[in-house]
Amino acid sequence: MWSFLTDNPNLWYVMGGCAILGVASGALGCFAVLRRQSLLGDALAHAALPGICLAFLLTGSKSPGVMLVGALASSLLGALFILGIVRGTRLKEDSAIGIVLSVFFGGGIVLLTAIQHRPTAAQAGLDKFLFGYAASLVPRDLEVLGMLTLAVLAVLALFYKEFKLLAFDREFGAAMGFPMRTLEVLLTALVVVAVVIGLQTVGVVLMAAMLITPAVAARQWTHSLGLMVTLAALIGAGCGVTGAVLSGAGRNIPTGPVIVLAVTLVMLFSIAMAPRRGLVWSWVRLWRHRKKVRLENLLADFYRLGEPQQDWKRARTLPALAIVRGQPPARVARTVAQLERSGLLASENGQWRLTDTGLEQARRILRNHRLWEMFLSRRLELAADHIHRDAEEMEHALSPAIVAELERLLGQPAMDPHHKPIPVVNPKSEASNPQSS
Amino acid sequence: MTPELAIILTACLTATACAIVGTFLVLRKMALIGDAISHAVLPGIVIAFFFTHSLNSLPMLIGASLFGLVTVALIEALSRTRRVAEDSAIGVVFPALFALGVLLISQRAGQIHLDTDCVLYGDIAWVPFNTIVVGGVNLGPRSVWVLGAVTLANLLFVLVFWKELKISTFDPELAAALGLAPVLIQYLLMGAVSVTTVAAFESVGAILVVAMLIVPAATAYLFTDRLWLMLTLAIVFGVLAAVSGYFFARAFDFSIAGAMALAVGVWFTLAWLFAPRHGVVAQLVWRARLSVRFAGELLVAHMADRNEPSLPVRALAGHFRWREWFGRLVVRDLLRRQLVRLDKAEVLLLTETGRQLAREFGREASAANSHDR
Prior knowledge:
The complex is a heterodimer of chains A (437) and B (373). Chain A is built from 18 helices and 2 strands. Chain A has helices at residues 3-7, 9-34, 38-59, 64-88, 93-116, 139-158, 160-168, 170-176, 180-201, 207-219, 225-249, 255-273, 279-306, 318-325, 329-341, 356-379, 388-394, 400-410, and strands at 345-348, 351-354. Chain A has a two-stranded antiparallel ribbon. In chain A, a hairpin with a 2-residue loop joins strand 1 (345-348) and strand 2 (351-354). Chain A is elongated, with a radius of gyration of 33 Å. In chain B, a hairpin with a 2-residue loop joins strand 1 and strand 2. In chain B, the strands form 2 sheets. In chain B, strands 3-5-4 form a 3-stranded antiparallel β-sheet. By secondary structure, chain B is mainly α. Chain B has 16 helices and 5 strands. Chains A and B meet through helix 3, helix 5, helix 10 and helix 12 of A and helix 2, helix 5, helix 6, helix 10 and helix 12 of B.
């Protein structure tokens, strides 16, 4: 099934071109994303079109060098317009970007139709810049694209420290005496070069995704800029190759859109699954915490029920617990079963009572609750009727070290503000926790 | 209806429908959401086209517009995760949906009359030939009817929810406090933007719609602070650009949609330069007037301070290191405001008004000084 890889030598060029684009745009996109200028790249890509057409109209050549000069000139003009509109009028940046993007693109389309009306045959394929023409890359293109990318990466490496400063603390950089404005222009110019590379492979319209999406994906995995840039470049390159292979394998599948969809999938996966930042992990954390709260609340109920008779280990029926908790019996039954599995409850002909460890846990939770209430009412001087709800949340979160500190601070109190005794906990069980079992 | 009239009418209706919703996009700083919607409805249009084989039927309009709302919801969901900044969320969502649309088109290439060129510039030149015929009576081009209906619907939406739109645009917290459901209004507006984009798709394509949505409204914003006036002006500029763009394109045989986008840009640039108050020229003139006025008041204060030294007009420029012409402007301004007068030897003298002004300066200065201490 992989025979198409060897049958078609051209495919290797396409893969090379897409990989090169991925590296350049992925690396540069990180800075655009971190500087909250994601959509500037989109505007620059659109604004490059009239420059490319003009360059062709003036020289009649389609070599990447000429295209680059034209694109660079008109993209920078577009960037200047955006800056001018934001500084010089009451319009905000979003409108400025929208204006430049659409008007320059309109101008480009007008020039494109002007070129199409010319009698020469050389104009054929200029409109391929709109969606890219990765499938028709030749070795000569590859050389130029590769050199451009190397140049971009070299400048990026040379000014890495300065660009880092620009991305995170522009004012600090300016105060240190770095020419931040010049660096901004340089970075914008680098983005334009990446856009020109991208025009050949994914085209004007989809270029935004090539800049932004790998950077957003890479951001999820790391807090270090160097790693983020490397990762984004790798993601961009990997998706470029994937897109090239997929479109080479199928019939009539355009390369650009496939690359963009591949990058988007990687980004979605990163947002969901990246360690620590991933959405799935935070859902898991939330679910675990909720479970812990549910278990601990029921243990505390057992303790409170036993308080009037000082009989902590009396067995309780399911309906009684359900009434105290205010939950349907089925739900309480599930929680009870989980507690029994952890050895905190023991069943006794259809009823449940606290085990020794269970009682220890329940004491610990109640102590946390009442200590926190003491702290709120004595130290922070909150009214007694305002503190229960807060303590209800804190009882699950206080660490042993903080509890010890609270006791020291409050002078080992025996009663809470509602004159209920604060349970004493056996120091040996201090470190244990129902969830660790 | 002649073909030319049909094209112009379609273009003008597109401009009007876009300007109505575009005004609110610009004011709400959501221009780029409009951009995103206009790209992202593409898969909706393609899917609807597979089913209905037409670009301009009502079910297709509604179905495709749903993708606009999906886009907005996706962008919001993505930025609500707080893993992605809002601008990145926009930039991530719309290219992905657009790519999906292009992929769908390429899969059915040849089977449907919908190619990527049409996506980019639309087919406005073919508009006159797609007509509605009911009972053998030719009712004219389909797109005029559809865009007319959309324009009317937008107008109705804005008129009915005028108060809600206005308050939620300028003060969303107040709107929420008054129970005006700003979120609902927001989604209704986004729905209107989606429907407009899909309807305008045939005449200007998915991308140039952005020009029609944002630029006329931005142009109008340079002229006025009144919402209704801005809305009216946006429509005027949109129509003006549509007509001028059409004739420009006709004259040189360019793409009509591209020329219209270029025309809105030209109108915007003209407004940016020459708008009263907010235009570049007006700002320059205002600043120049201000500096002449300041210089003149400085001169008055100086003369009062020195107990009216006799200052010949000729020596003025040298004394203050002003340029010759600037000095003349200052003196003329002072004479016009009757703060100074000239005696026969062309020497400046303070008038009573001038002295009074100088005394006021003195009071303000001493008040400021005592305030500092």
